[in-house]
Each structure stands twice: as structure tokens, then as C-alpha cells.
Amino acid sequence: MVFCGLASSAEAVTLPAIIGPHMVLQRNAEVTIWGWGKTGEEITVTGSWDNQPVKTKADNQARWEVKLKTSAAAGPHTLTVKGYNTLVLEDVLLGEVWLCSGQSNMEWSASAGIDNAAQHVAEANFPAIRFFQVAHRTADTPQLDLPGQWVVCTPKTMKDFSAVGYFFGREIHQKMKVPVGLINSSWGGTPAETWLSSQAISASPVLAQAAAARKEVPWGPVQPGKAYHAMIAPLTSFRLAGALWYQGESNTDAPEVYAQLLPALIQNWRTQWKQDFPFYFVQIAPFNYGSPEERVRLGEAQLKTLQVPNTGMAVINDLGNPDDIHPRNKLDVGKRLAAWALNKTYGQKDVLFSGPLYNGQMKVEGNKIRLFFDHADQGLVIKGKELTHFEIAGEDKNFVPATAKISGSTIVVSANGVKKPVAVRLAWSNTAVPNLYNKAGHPASSFRTDSWTR
Fold this sequence. Notes:
This protein is an alpha+beta fold and 454 residues long.
């Protein structure tokens, strides 16, 4: 960044950290550039991709902002901000900007330990991928700025950045041939409540009551809004292509609340950004939690969130480790998230993006139940000799292991002794790893056809 001019530092136009050299601005969009200056100071902002200056004045709060139209031209470009002083931001790219957020599995880096870490780090030379790491901070009210800087993707910078975010970004970059900017704002061990604004939590009696019941932990905030105010709010003027979310392990104690909490978070963020951007999330992996159904019920809440428009869920029940809450295969997590983006956001309809999802339809056929799935048009696949982890129950609500057979794009389930079946479950436990896939190689989500409490 080049500074020039004779104005005193008290009068110098300044920018938030998220607007700086090496950044990626969303291409083919209207982006906001903002900052601070002396009240009434005339500010001129010019992007070298079109050299069209846009003028404004700092208001009575010393804040200013302008809207710039970006093009498809990747760059590198310069962004010039001229007030009493002049700032020239070098090496600015136009591309796709994604926010990565959540708890430790999103925060997890190659340095922390991932499969084939040495190879992935050594290969991480992508000048058109840029990282912005948000530091851990809390605040009681929404903040205007946060610490951080944009850096170019190199082995040195990649190794401490979100591995899931990096693998997602690399896939988008390689398939779309465009620059990618990744903003990682994550904090290990945090519940979702702290990633919504405090107002969004208090607006819902259910969420407010659940948040009030959370107990302090030594590793991070739990109170509503604490992380949002410091780590998300300062970013809400920065135009995104979409958001990625990998979180839920710290909410397994109240999965029924999460079914309201995650949709509320999505709406809260979209409202604050004034943008209905795509929101793609990861269904948490099998792990040996304390209570027998914590993980699978939380996963069910995530599955229900697919009812929210413009969302997608990467299923990773085949990538987990029941003895490690941090699965080390982050490559396939990132690639499965990218598949959703490539198909749904970028229109690459040949990219298959989801595993089989039970679509709520079942048909009782004598002593058998036929199940119907979305994302199974090209057929279903067993990895192994026979389908596992299916259970069936009659009116007594007693589930027993079942035999399951693929029949085209459906599955027929039955069990000896269950003459009048009424419900089926798949992989309904914390540690179950089913072996049902579609021909694209994506695994099926766990599910149940009933809503029984037992």
C-alpha cells in the first residue's frame, strides 16, 4: 500500500483491514468500498479495471462508502482511494469471494494435522488464491473493523489456514479458472449462538432460552453475539459469492434447538449482508459422543436446514473417525462443498453434488417398506457386499436390524419378525458409518422416517 500527500494523520483517509493489497473483490458485481476520513472530506475511489472514478464525502460520523462495478477481468489491478491523502492498493484481483466459518473443523489447518499434509503444503503455490485470516476476538456490540491482512496462497501461508477452506478454494479456482478469495472467521469449540447477532438470538424465545442455559467454557465464547460482533459484523459490507459453514459439534447437547438455530443464523447473515448468498454447510461426522443419539439428531437438524432456499449440505459420514472429533481427511470435505458451489452457484450441471437424500416418501408393501430418494436418478451403489445399518420397526416402535436391497433408485427394507412395518432408520447412531452411495460417489445421509421420541 502506497501512502502519499501532505495531510496530517488526523485527516488521513483510512480503510478497514478487509480492504487492502492482495485482496480479491467479487467479480461482475457491485462492491462496496468504505472507510473513514475527515468530516466533509471529498473521497475519490478508482479501480484500474475500468478507471471510472467514483466520488463521495465523509459524513458527520467520519465514515464514507462508494459502490464500484467490477468486471470479469481478473487482474492484477490497483484500487486508488484519494482524499487529503492518497492510498494505492496494489495486486488486487477480481474473482470469487467466500466466507469460511464455524468451529474447530473449519479452523483446522495442515499444521494441525491432515491426511497427506506435507504433499498438500508443498503443492500450495496458487498466486490467484488469497487468504484473509480473522483473529479470535469478542465484543459486546458490532464492531467496525478487525485485525488482519490479505496474503497470497503459498506453502507458508496455506499451512496455517483453514484446510477445508483451502481445498474448497483450490477446487473452485482450478475448475472455474478464476481468482478465489477466502476469508476464514472460525473459532474452535464455539456454539452457533455466539455467531449470530445478540439481537437475532433475543428475537426468538426458544433461542434466547437455550443460549441463556449455556455454561462458560475455557476455550472460547458461548454468549450470543460475542464472536459475531467482533469477527463477522465488520465484514458485512464486503461482497461475497457465498458462505461455508462447518460447525455443530458444540451444539449436540440441544439438537432440537439447532433445527431453528442454523436457519436463524443463515437469515441473520443474509440480512446483515443484504444479500441472499449461497450457504453451504457440512453435516458433522460420526463421533462417539456421550449420549447415544446426539450426533445423529444434530445431523438431522442440519438435514432439515436444506429446506432453507439456496443452501447445500456436504455429507461426510464416511470420512469421520469415531474416536477423533477432528477427521483428518479435509480434502474430500472441501471438494464436496465445492461440488455444491460448482453446480448450484456456478451452473456446472454436469457436476454431481449430493449423495442420496431420503425425500420423505415411503410405501409399505406387505411386510416391506420401499424408500424413495433424491439424487439417486443414476442409481444407487453399495460399498461392500450388502447394505448395512438399516433398521425397521412395527407399531411397537422396536427397531431391529433389517435387510435392505437396492431396487432401481429406491431401497426395499424388511426384517424377519416384522410383519407390519411402519418405520425405517439408516445409521441412526453416533458412530454408524453407512455404505450407501450414489454413482457419483457421494454417501447417503443418515435419516429416519419416524418422529418418535424413543
